[in-house]
Design goal:
Length: 68
């Protein structure tokens, strides 16, 4: 029995391209997470009160959402 010649499957042929694209995405994702206001910047938890508050490490003033 002979094995017919087979071209490289597309998923294997594109592995290098996928790897490059994933590495670019991963570097961008890490940059977004490490941004001064990104997810990794969370350093403490503050409960909001009725009075607007400012926090040194966050832009703006936080107030609780108003309900009807």
């Amino acid at each position: 029995m002979t094995v017919p010649d087979q071209a490289t499957p597309p998923e294997v042929a594109d592995l290098g391209e996928f790897t490059v694209a994933w590495q670019a995405w991963h570097a961008d994702q890490e940059a977004r997470l490490a941004d001064p206001h990104g997810f990794l910047a969370i350093t403490s938890l503050h409960w909001l009160t009725e009075t607007p508050q400012r926090f040194d490490d966050a832009p703006g003033a936080g107030t609780p959402a108003r309900t009807a």
